[in-house]
Specification:
Chains A, B: This is Methylmalonyl Co-A mutase-associated GTPase MeaB. Chains A, B: One of its GO terms (molecular function) is GTPase activity. Chains A, B: InterPro entries: GTPase/Isobutyryl-CoA_mutase (IPR052040), GTPase_ArgK (IPR005129), P-loop_NTPase (IPR027417). Two copies of one chain form a homodimer. By secondary structure, chain A is α/β, with parallel strands linked by helices. Chain A has a seven-stranded parallel beta sheet, sandwiched between helices. In chain A, helix 1 packs across helix 3, helix 2 packs across helix 3 and helix 2 packs antiparallel against helix 6. The first copy, chain A, starts with a helix and ends in a 6-residue tail after the last helix.
Chain lengths: 314, 314
C-alpha cells in the first residue's frame, strides 16, 4: 500500500463515520487536485444520491439569502443539507463578495448543515471540474439535499443546469433583469423561476413577461411547465411554496424516469471538463507550437493534435 | 488538385481582389466548419494585422450604439473597418436581440465598413473558436481596425480579452452595473472603461467607484493605467476622446513590445478552443463510457484518456 493509499484509507474511515472534519479535509484535497483526493474520489464516487438543486441568477438577486431560507425549509423536513457556493477566484474581487455569506453563519451550530465556498479555478465564472468532484463528496457523505449556488451569469448557468437535478433561476423586479435572462439564454435551462424582492415595484410585470416568454419556449422533457414563484427572501415570504416547487420538480424527474439522464449529463460534463483542463494546461506549456500557430505556419487543429499525442504526454 | 482545393483557389482569388461577396462566402464556410473554409484559413492565417478592439459589457449598456459611433470615428481617419457581433445562438431569444443592430445599417452603403453577426455555437455566451477564425479572415481581407462586440457577461469577457489587442468594458450609471463588473471579475481584463449613458443620474459616482477599485488593482503590463471615459453614444458625446483612448492603448502595446504577446495569447486560445470542441464532440458520442463514469466504475480522467486515444479516433 502506498503512502497515499494509506492516507486515503484513514481519511475514508473517518469520512464514513460521518466526521465533518474528514469531509472538510477531503474537499480541500480534491479542490487542490491532491493525489489523495483523487484516490478518495475513486472510492466514493457514484455511491450515494442527493437531491441536487442549482441556484443561479444575476448578482444582487438575493441568491444567498434565498438559499439561507431554503436551508431552513429543508431542515424543517428533517433533511441533511450541503451547500456549495461557487465564487470567482479573483483575489481582487473575491473578498467583498463573500460578505453576504455571513448571513448563512446562523447554520454554523447546526450539524445537519454543511456550507462550503469553492473558488472556481481556471474557468472564471464557470463551474470548475473541482465543483462536480466536491458535489460527489457531499453526496457520498450522505446529505439528502445539496444546494449549489453560482455567482455571475452566462456560462455558469449552463454549467449548473448540466450538474444539478433541478435548476432555479432567481430574478428580481429590477429593470432589465428579465431582459438579461432572455439575452443570456438561460430561460431554456431553468426548471423553476423565483421573482425575489417581490415587495419592490414591477414584480407582477416581470411575472407576466416570463409567462409570455415561456409560452413560446420549446416543450420540456416529460411535459414540465416551469412555475414562477414570487418570493421575499428577506422575510421568508413565498419560500415554503418555492421549496415545495423544488420537491415537485424532483418527483417529476422520478415519475418520468428522467433522473438517470441528469446523472449521465453530469458525468458527461465532468469528462468534458477534464479534457478542457488538459487542453488548457498543455497549451500553456507549449510556447513553440503556439508561436507557430500565431505565425500561420500551423493550424490550431494541427497544434491540438500534437498536444494530445499520448507519446508526448505519457 | 482536389475539388475542395480548386474551390478554395477560386474563392481565394476573388478574396484577394477585395471582393466583399468572397469574404462573406468565406466567413459562412468557416462558420459552418466546411472543409473549403478550413483550406482557406490555412492559406490566409497570420498574413495581415488589424487593430482588434473587443467591446463588452452587460446587456443594455449600449454597446451596439457605441460601436456604431466608433465606426464613424475610424472612418473619419480613413480606416477600413470590420465588425464582428457575437450573439447567443438560442433561436428562442436570438431574434429580438438583433433588433438594435439595425442602427448599424447606416454603414450598409459604405464599402469601407463590413459588419457580420456570428452565432456563438456550442459555447453559449462564449466566443466560439469560429469567431477567432472569422477574425483571421477579416484581418486577411485587409481591414485596418476590427471591432468584436460580445453580448452578455461572464466567460465571454475573459474570452474577448484573450482575442483582442484592446478590451473596452462598457458600463452605465445604472445601479449595480459597477458591482456586476466587480463580481464578474472583468475589472482586471478591461484596458479602458466607458461609462455610457452618462446623461443619466449617477455617472460621477460610478466613475469614483471605478477609480477606487482600480487603485487596488494589480499593476498592468508596461505600467498601463486603464482610463475611464464618460460617453453618451446616442448623441456621440465623448466618443472622439474614447476613440483616441483606444488608439493610445494600441500605441502603448507597440511601444512596450506587448503586441506579440497578445497575438500569442490569441493563438493559445484557438488551440484550447479546438481541444475543448473535440472533447465536447467525442464525449457526446461516448454514451457507454459516460454511463460507466456515472456509475462510479470509471473516473472522468480515465474516460478522458480513452476518448483522446488517437487509435480510437484516427
Amino acid at each position: 500500500m502506498t503512502v497515499q493509499e494509506s492516507q486515503a484509507e484513514e481519511l475514508l474511515h473517518r469520512f464514513r463515520q460521518g466526521d465533518v472534519r474528514a469531509l472538510a479535509r477531503a474537499l480541500t484535497l480534491v479542490e487542490s487536485g491532491h493525489p489523495v483526493g483523487q484516490e478518495l474520489l475513486k472510492r466514493l464516487r457514484g455511491q450515494a444520491r442527493a437531491k441536487v438543486v442549482g441556484i443561479t441568477g444575476s448578482p444582487g438577486a438575493g441568491k444567498s439569502t434565498l438559499t439561507d431560507r431554503l436551508i431552513l425549509e429543508a431542515r424543517k423536513r428533517g433533511e441533511r443539507v450541503g451547500v456549495l457556493a461557487v465564487d470567482p477566484s479573483s483575489p481582487f474581487t473575491g473578498g467583498a463578495i463573500l460578505g453576504d455569506r455571513i448571513r448563512m453563519m446562523r447554520h454554523h451550530q447546526d450539524p445537519g448543515v454543511y456550507i462550503r465556498s469553492l473558488a472556481s479555478r481556471g474557468a472564471l465564472g464557470g463551474l470548475a471540474g473541482a465543483t462536480v468532484a466536491a458535489l460527489a463528496l457531499l453526496e457520498a457523505f450522505g446529505f439528502d439535499r445539496i444546494f449549489v449556488e453560482t455567482v455571475g451569469v452566462g456560462q455558469s448557468e449552463v454549467d449548473i443546469a448540466r450538474v444539478a437535478d433541478t435548476t432555479l433561476l432567481v430574478l428580481t423586479p429590477a429593470a432589465g433583469d428579465a431582459v438579461q435572462a432572455f439575452k443570456a439564454g438561460v430561460m431554456e435551462i431553468a426548471d423553476l423561476f423565483a421573482v425575489n424582492k417581490f415587495d419592490l415595484p414591477g414584480g407582477e410585470r416581470i411575472i407576466q413577461e416570463l409567462k409570455s416568454a415561456l409560452e413560446l419556449a420549446p416543450p420540456r422533457p416529460g411535459g414540465w411547465h416551469p412555475p414562477i414563484y414570487p418570493t421575499v427572501a428577506a422575510t421568508g415570504e413565498g419560500v415554503e411554496a418555492l421549496f415545495e416547487g423544488l420537491e415537485a420538480h424532483y418527483q417529476h424527474l422520478v415519475a418520468h424516469g428522467l433522473l438517470e439522464a441528469h446523472r449521465l449529463e453530469r458525468a458527461r460534463f465532468e469528462v468534458e471538463s477534464v479534457i478542457q483542463e488538459w487542453g488548457r494546461k498543455r497549451t500553456q506549456g507549449a510556447g513553440d507550437l503556439v508561436a507557430r500557430v500565431a505565425r500561420g505556419e500551423l493550424s490550431p487543429e494541427e497544434a491540438a493534435l500534437a498536444l494530445l499525442d499520448p507519446k508526448a504526454h505519457p
